[in-house]
Amino acid sequence: MTTSRPILVAVLGAWLLMALGAGHAGLFEAGPGRPPLPILIAIVAPLALFALLYWGSLAFQRLVLGIDLRFLTVMQSWRVIGVMFLAFYAFGLLPGLFAWPAGVGDAIVGFSAPFVLRAMMRAGPTWRRRVIWLNVGGLVDFAVALATGVLTSPSSVGWFAEPAPRASLGALPLSLIPTFAVPLWTIFHVISLVQLHRTESRQQNFTICTHALDTARASS
Question: What is the maximum span of the chain, computed from C-alpha positions, in angstroms?
Fold first, then answer.
């Protein structure tokens, strides 16, 4: 993990710079009458690359499974920044159909993360369930925000777009949210759920093996 950390930092830094450069060049602006493919590609491509690396590289898989679950959980507290969507809505810059579910959902996830982390530190009986709910809720929030963002975008599928000039999720600085923050935090959610699943599977296997050994000793 230690030797791989500089590589991860470099990759994330390059990704951020690419998102900044593409946003500055206006590559994420779909424009009226066109589907929002640039932003959708920017969201899906990192997730697809992560999946390919995870299933195709044992070294990458070990790296991912070695990330501290507590770190992944506390990183979700940054989601409170999503309340800015409500501020943009208050100034008439974002439609309410997008701003309310995205802003409230991010705030709930962000404010819940420290409490989930505290439950993990105390190792109480419900900490796993709380981590699962935090990450599933975070993924649902992203899905709803993506759907409402597309439906309210000035594109060919923006069926609920409003004619008044507004802030665009395809232009800086807001473009960094769907092109960098959303896919990165989605990956954090996926890693957390995968770690929980693998840990639970190992514990179940250990319990089964222990029970089988105890049964064999009792019958001998």
Answer: 81
